[in-house]
């Protein structure tokens, strides 16, 4: 009994001792801080926006912009029997801001802001350190300092890319002669974690968004390494941005804004300084038939990192190309092929829609396009030429997709040179691309703008929504293609109705839209 | 007369030190009148007046929500690891406190053969905890929400129950009944959410559509969507009521009926007056009989006054991509010819009709919402039900026979659960949970109804 009393007293004293200082018992110091404590951990934060860009099978942004812009353009035709899981009919019918923002347009919007937040977090850590006059991590070696430069460049590159996709889908195209003061979506370049700021955001004007992209990519270009092999921990290094990738995105930005001399300077830089890394010596297919870290085509400046081991690989290219994502065969939901008008225009079909000799002589046609005389799914579908650029590697679903190729840089410089009356320069660039496709040169005397436009269709159709981008960059009308001329007319510059609404739930939840 | 008081101080590590501790008081008083000398009644065997006040704290929130949270994606989902931003923290988050004041009478009649209670309560919830929806532009990979103390709410209600031992001879019969009525109202929201009369609109995580609204003066999780006006008999298209938003933030009909196109559905959403997923009445009754060695017991439950969004019905009535099963109602109840007063619109693929926002005929298809987004109350149904939850029929072997068989006792019982439900709700089961975030009840193809079970039991004691 005495023992029990002793124990009880002991327990009482112990409890009293502990309970005197309850707060320290519970206490966990938890100020908000970012999770990266050294340079290699920081790289995990750098990889996240790449992962998000590639993550969603049906809504990944680069697939969405390609699907939407190709389908809206004059070089696509829509086969309504095979409408798949998408808003393809609305794209083809050019509903734009009058259509409900659903499917890919809603999914990509959400995905792009995940990417932006994924960039803003690590960038905030760097900005905070800079403001405090400190290195972001203690005792960094010079290699680690180089890595931080590269990583910051990549984060800026990816943030700029996210806004680039947003501004090209959810706002009217940049008007070189206008004020561009319309405000369509949130522009946020800091890491924000208060509910007030997240629920009541600042909508950036089109001009502000373009300025932000330019600023991000300009700084990215300064920071990124030309050859990033030594500064990134990645087998598939071409999936990580380098200086040339940032330069190529600046080229696109300047071109679509009509700042052609700046765009040309970027082309010059890539072609001249990148000559040891990129060339057009390989067949066209070589950019499209690689898996994961197998390597990359010699013209590939940047590609997606399809290293997925889960099911989260992109599939939506099946909608606007021949291949099913899992096999080298017609997909059951392929619904957009090349329009007859575009095929006749580039000389790959005659007036009766028959295949031409010119087509058969073109390596791109034989390697990256696929003509069905009879569609295996239905004999009601007429003979069509399909894009055949996707899911072409041995493991089809995990094929890398090139997002920037050298051929585009040559073609962009060709049209800029042509418009500056540098016909021999233009012909020289154009013939680089033609020569790789196995075609004869076009002389400086004979070259026309049409030659360059057509070469670009053959080279870049379905990639990045290039066709509408190119026409907008040149302030040319976006023709109707095969659409019914009694219902459709060309979209004329400044294309002020050519954009999609942001999703309804963004309008509901973001008070900036109610103010 | 008796008084009981208590006071307690609770701390929880889910909150920051500043908001960690809270003090909760409670007290109760009771007066058993029937024990007083002056109380003389043959019929009333027990009468007690009681009242209580109690405070409790709700900490039913996830841990780790006071600060931002990242996690590492592993190589099982990604070839290369990366850090995912899971949630945004709120260091101001604090206890949600519920204070309940109730008054009641407990009674017993005829030697307590009939007994029960009647009570009235007022429950005030202060600093209500809610996972508030954020816009897509928040860009939070783990989900666009933030936990907040959004405001104050009040529940008022009445509870009544009675149990009666009606027969007590060879034939025994006990009967019980209980019912409660509850009405709730949001008393205040944080000033941010109350600004411009916007309120907080919430959406289902898997649906990406706003379906409920939290707003001062409204009940919790009021349904918020375009109000269906049925099917146009001439054109076979779904129609909705045109809505105007008044200066005070309320919504009302303009008197026009317009086609349920996606645009109209988005721009004519309405606070559906008083319609929520929380039942106004819930209760049940039970009855047990016994005659000699046979016994029968049954247990009913009911709920009334709530609304359920029947996503499954919508899905099976919407031929489009991804649908794997369609309802036969499309053959019998859908619009077919001009003049039909049909329950469901004309059967079309992908919810596309050839009439525009104003109802004019078009050559190109016009999208009338989708299965997942831009919905109307066409598929919002009353959730009232009466359900036989349990029925048991048993037989106990007479003791003398059991003894002969060398047993103390033996009982055979057949019991069944969820035998039948009386309801106008067209889904499988109107007994649906309420989502904590949206305050909404929603059934979809993945909602599994409660199982009906039969069991036969043999209970032998040696």
Topology:
The complex is a heterodimer of chains A (515) and B (462).
Chain A: H1 2-19, H2 22-26, H3 39-55, H4 61-72, E1 76-78, H5 88-92, H6 103-131, H7 142-170, E2 183-186, H8 195-199, E3 203-205, H9 206-223, H10 243-257, H11 260-273, E4 300-303, E5 323-324, E6 327-330, E7 336-338, H12 340-346, H13 357-360, H14 363-368, E8 369-372, E9 384-387, E10 402-405, H15 406-419, H16 423-436, H17 449-460, H18 466-473, H19 504-509
Antiparallel strand pairs in A: 1-7, 2-3, 4-10, 5-6, 8-9
Chain B: E1 2-11, E2 21-32, E3 44-58, E4 69-73, E5 82-87, E6 96-109, E7 114-133, E8 145-168, E9 171-189, H1 191-194, E10 200-203, E11 210-214, E12 222-226, E13 228-231, E14 238-245, E15 251-259, H2 262-267, E16 269-271, E17 281-291, E18 294-304, E19 307-310, H3 311-316, H4 329-332, E20 352-355, E21 361-367, E22 380-382, E23 385-396, H5 399-404, E24 409-423, E25 442-443, E26 453-461
Parallel strand pairs in B: 19-25
Antiparallel strand pairs in B: 1-2, 2-3, 3-6, 4-5, 6-7, 7-8, 8-9, 9-17, 10-11, 11-12, 12-16, 13-14, 14-15, 17-18, 18-23, 19-22, 20-21, 23-24, 24-26
Describe the protein's architecture and organization:
The complex is a heterodimer of chains A (515) and B (462). By secondary structure, chain A is mainly alpha-helical. Helix content of chain A is 46%, strand content 7%. In chain A, the strands form five sheets. In chain A, strands 1-7 form a two-stranded antiparallel ribbon. Chain A has a two-stranded antiparallel ribbon with strand order 2-3. In chain A, helix 9 runs antiparallel to helix 10 (243-257) and helix 11 (260-273) packs across helix 15 (406-419). The mean pLDDT of chain A is 92. The longest helix of chain B has 6 residues, at 262-267. In chain B, a hairpin with a 4-residue loop joins strand 6 and strand 7. Chain B has a domain at 199-461. Chain B is mainly beta. The chains are: A mainly alpha (515), B mainly beta (462). At the A-B interface, helix 2, helix 3, helix 6, helix 8 and helix 19 of A face strand 4, strand 5, helix 2 and strand 21 of B.
């Amino acid at each position: 009994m005495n023992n029990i009393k002793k124990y009880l007293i002991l327990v009482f004293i112990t409890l009293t001792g502990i309970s005197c200082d309850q707060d320290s018992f519970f206490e966990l110091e938890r100020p908000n801080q970012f999770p990266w404590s050294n340079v290699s951990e920081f790289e995990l934060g750098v990889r996240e926006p790449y992962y998000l860009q590639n993550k969603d099978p049906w809504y990944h942004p680069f697939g969405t912009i390609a699907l939407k812009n190709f389908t809206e353009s004059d070089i696509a035709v829509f086969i309504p029997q095979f409408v798949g899981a998408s808003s393809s009919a609305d794209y083809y019918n050019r509903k734009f801001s009058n259509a409900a923002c659903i499917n890919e347009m809603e999914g990509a919007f959400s995905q792009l802001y995940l990417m932006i937040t994924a960039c803003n977090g690590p960038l905030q850590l760097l900005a905070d350190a800079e403001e405090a006059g400190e290195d972001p991590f203690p005792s960094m070696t010079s290699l680690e300092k180089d890595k931080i430069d590269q990583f910051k460049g990549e984060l800026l590159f990816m943030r700029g890319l996210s806004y680039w996709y947003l501004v090209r889908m959810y706002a009217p195209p940049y008007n070189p002669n206008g004020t561009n003061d319309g405000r369509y979506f949130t522009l946020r370049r800091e890491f924000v974690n208060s509910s007030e700021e997240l629920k009541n955001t600042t909508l950036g004007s089109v001009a502000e968004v373009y300025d932000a992209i330019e600023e991000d990519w300009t700084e990215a270009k300064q920071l990124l390494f030309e050859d990033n092999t030594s500064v990134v921990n990645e087998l598939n290094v071409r999936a990580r941005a380098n200086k040339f990738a940032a330069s190529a995105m600046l080229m696109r930005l300047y071109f679509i804004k009509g700042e052609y001399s700046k765009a040309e300077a970027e082309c010059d830089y890539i072609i001249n300084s990148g000559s040891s890394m990129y060339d057009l010596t390989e067949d066209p297919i070589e950019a499209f038939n690689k898996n994961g870290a197998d390597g990359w085509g010699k013209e590939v400046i940047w590609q997606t990192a399809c290293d997925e081991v889960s099911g989260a690989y992109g599939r939506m290219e099946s909608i606007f190309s021949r291949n099913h994502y899992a096999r080298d065969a017609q997909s059951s939901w392929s619904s957009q092929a090349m329009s007859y008008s575009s095929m006749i225009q580039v000389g790959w079909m005659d007036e009766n829609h028959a295949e031409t000799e010119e087509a058969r002589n073109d390596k791109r046609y034989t390697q990256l396009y696929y003509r069905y005389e009879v569609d295996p799914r239905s004999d009601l579908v007429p003979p069509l030429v399909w894009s055949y650029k996707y899911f072409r590697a041995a493991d089809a679903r995990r094929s890398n997709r090139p997002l920037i190729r050298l051929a585009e840089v040559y073609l962009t410089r060709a049209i800029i040179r042509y418009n500056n009356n540098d016909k021999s320069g233009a012909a020289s660039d154009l013939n680089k691309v033609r020569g790789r496709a196995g075609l004869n040169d076009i002389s400086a005397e004979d070259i026309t703008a049409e030659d360059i436009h057509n070469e670009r269709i053959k080279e870049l159709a379905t990639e990045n929504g290039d066709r509408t981008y190119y026409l907008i960059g040149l302030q040319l009308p976006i023709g109707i293609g095969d659409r019914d001329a009694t219902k459709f007319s060309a979209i004329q510059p400044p294309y002020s109705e050519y954009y999609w609404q942001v999703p309804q739930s963004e309008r509901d939840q973001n008070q900036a839209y109610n103010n | 007369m008796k008084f009981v008081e208590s006071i307690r101080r609770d701390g929880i590590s889910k909150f920051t030190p500043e908001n960690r501790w809270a003090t909760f008081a409670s007290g109760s008083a009771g007066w058993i009148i029937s024990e007083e000398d002056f109380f003389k009644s043959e019929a009333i065997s027990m009468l007690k007046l009681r009242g209580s006040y109690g405070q409790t704290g709700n900490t039913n929130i996830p841990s780790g929500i006071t600060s931002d949270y990242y996690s590492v994606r592993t190589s099982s989902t990604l070839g290369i690891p990366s850090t995912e931003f899971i949630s945004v923290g709120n260091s101001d988050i604090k206890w949600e406190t519920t204070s309940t004041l109730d008054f009641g009478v407990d009674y017993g009649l005829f030697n307590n053969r009939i007994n029960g209670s009647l009570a009235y309560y007022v429950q005030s919830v202060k600093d209500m905890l809610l996972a508030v929806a954020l816009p897509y532009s928040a860009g939070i990979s783990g989900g666009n929400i933030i936990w907040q103390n959004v405001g104050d709410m009040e529940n008022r209600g009445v509870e009544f129950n009675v149990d009666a031992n009606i027969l007590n001879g060879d034939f025994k019969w006990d009967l019980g009944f209980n019912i409660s009525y509850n009405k709730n109202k949001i008393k205040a929201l944080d000033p941010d959410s109350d600004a411009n009369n916007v309120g907080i609109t919430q959406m289902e995580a898997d649906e990406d559509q706003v379906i409920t609204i939290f707003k001062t003066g409204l009940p919790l999780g009021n349904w918020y969507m375009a109000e269906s006006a049925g099917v146009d008999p001439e054109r076979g298209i779904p129609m909705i009521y045109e809505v105007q938003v008044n200066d005070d933030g309320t919504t009302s009909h303009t008197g026009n009926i317009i086609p349920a196109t996606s645009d109209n559905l988005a721009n004519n959403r309405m606070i559906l007056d008083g319609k929520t997923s929380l039942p106004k009445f819930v209760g049940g009754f039970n009855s047990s009989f016994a005659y000699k060695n046979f016994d029968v017991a049954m247990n009913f439950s009911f709920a009334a006054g709530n609304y359920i969004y029947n996503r499954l019905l919508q899905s099976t009535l919407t031929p489009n991509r991804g649908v794997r099963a369609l309802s036969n109602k499309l053959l019998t109840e859908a619009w077919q010819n001009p003049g039909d007063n049909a329950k469901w619109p004309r059967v079309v693929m992908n919810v596309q009709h050839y009439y525009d926002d104003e109802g004019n005929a078009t050559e190109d298809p016009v999208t009338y919402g989708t299965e997942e987004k831009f919905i109307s109350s066409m598929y919002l149904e009353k959730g009232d039900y009466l359900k036989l939850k349990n029925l048991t029929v048993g037989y106990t072997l007479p003791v003398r026979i059991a003894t002969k068989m060398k047993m103390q006792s033996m009982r055979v019982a057949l019991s069944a659960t969820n035998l039948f439900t009386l309801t106008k709700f067209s889904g499988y089961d109107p007994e649906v949970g309420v989502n904590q975030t949206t305050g909404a009840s929603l059934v979809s193809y993945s909602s599994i109804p409660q199982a009906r079970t039969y069991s036969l039991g043999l209970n032998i004691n040696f």
